[in-house]
Design goal:
This protein is 33% helix and 21% strand. By secondary structure, it is of the alpha+beta class. The radius of gyration is 35 Å and the shape is elongated. The relative contact order is 0.08.
Length: 234
């Protein structure tokens, strides 16, 4: 049986206070007050900081004093509750229990294993390598198309990447150099490129018409000047 990966589950220094609970699923907002020294005023100010904390069993209530541990769950939730220092309102015995550090490590390890197995089944070399290093059984694809496997999949023990003909074009390139657009099949063209070409052609035609008008105006002016000169001599 593979051993769980050792993670830094040390609690974040200093307790925090829950300021919002029950508004987000398995997530609470906490406030942490830090002391900041102003070097010009030579005085200490208290600077509050708010961030989100993961609460897997919805055990926290607004007003609780807790400690947190680093554990990423999303872009904005990078902490999880470690312990309740001072409960507010309902006693701790009447609330859902918190996970211990070992339980959190096992849950994270289980989720990581499922993700690695999914990526390895698609032939990702890094996932195959990680699964073999940690002793996890994965099903690697036996047949893959162009670009389905990473260049290092064969060295990592995955399915070999088939040879690609030298004169073969990309998947989205059609005969004649045209590209697929909007999921069309053979014969589809890039509408954006066609629209750009049409606009360019319109501008060129307009420029040619303006140039022709300028030349015609210049010729008429030259003829009028020549007639005026001829009349003046007579």
């Amino acid at each position: 049986m593979a051993q769980p990966v050792t993670r830094n589950l040390a609690a974040r220094p200093g307790p925090v206070v829950v300021v919002s609970a029950g508004r987000m699923q398995n997530t609470v907002k906490v406030r942490q007050v830090k002391e900041t020294w102003h070097k010009h005023l030579r005085k200490t100010f208290y600077r509050p900081k708010q961030f989100l904390v993961h609460d897997p069993n919805s055990s926290l209530l607004e007003g609780d004093v807790i400690t947190t541990a680093p554990e990423r769950h999303s872009k904005w939730v990078k902490q999880t509750v470690a312990a309740i220092v001072a409960p507010f309102g309902k006693p701790i015995d009447e609330r859902p229990p918190l996970y211990t550090a070992q339980q959190r490590a096992e849950i994270a390890d289980t989720k990581r294993k499922a993700k690695v197995q999914r990526r390895a089944s698609r032939g990702v070399a890094s996932a195959i390598r990680e699964a073999r290093e940690r002793g996890w059984e994965v099903e690697t694809p036996t047949v893959g198309g162009w670009g389905a496997l990473h260049d290092e999949a064969q060295s990592a023990g995955g399915a070999p990447k088939p040879d690609r003909p030298k004169d073969a074009m990309g998947r989205s390139v059609l005969p004649g150099g045209r590209h697929k657009f909007g999921g069309k099949g053979e014969g589809g063209v890039n509408k954006e490129a066609a629209h750009g070409a049409a606009r360019t052609s319109t501008r060129l035609n307009k420029a040619r018409e303006q140039e022709a008008e300028r030349e015609e105006t210049a010729n008429q002016s030259t003829e009028e000047v020549a007639k005026a000169n001829l009349q003046g001599k007579q």
